[in-house]
Design brief:
Layout: E1 2-5, E2 8-11, H1 18-27, E3 33-34, H2 35-42, H3 47-60, E4 64-67, E5 72-75, H4 77-94
Antiparallel strand pairs: 1-2, 3-5, 4-5
Helix pairs in contact: 1-2, 1-4
Length: about 100
C-alpha cells in the first residue's frame, strides 16, 4: 500500500482520497510527521488548504492530532482503528 523511494512515501492507490492517504501514511510512519513532508507525500498542491481542510477535518474527527504550533501530525488510536477496519479491508477486497 505504501512505497518508499528515497525520502518520499507514496500511497499506491491513485484513487484514494487525500484524507485517507494522510491516515494511511501516518499509520505506516511511527511517531509524528512534519506537516510539510506529509503534504509532499500526498502531492497536495496548496499548503494552506491542506492544513485547513484536510488536517483540520481529520483533527476535529479525532482521527489525528494536528499540532499547529510544532507543524506535526500524529495518528490517534481512533485513526488507527479506521485504517485497520476500513482502509486495509477495502484494499484487500479490491486486490
Amino acid at each position: 500500500m505504501i512505497w518508499q523511494v528515497g525520502g518520499v512515501k507514496r500511497v499506491l492507490d491513485p484513487k484514494m482520497a487525500v484524507p485517507d492517504r494522510v491516515l494511511v501514511l501516518l499509520y505506516a510512519t511511527p511517531g509524528a510527521v512534519d506537516v510539510n513532508e506529509l503534504r509532499r507525500w500526498t502531492e497536495y498542491k496548496n499548503p494552506s488548504r491542506f492544513r485547513e481542510e484536510v488536517l483540520q477535518t481529520l483533527h476535529e474527527a479525532t482521527l489525528i492530532h494536528h499540532d499547529t504550533v510544532l507543524g506535526i501530525a500524529t495518528i490517534s488510536p481512533l485513526g488507527e482503528r479506521e485504517v485497520e477496519a476500513r482502509l486495509l479491508t477495502e484494499l484487500m477486497i479490491g486486490a
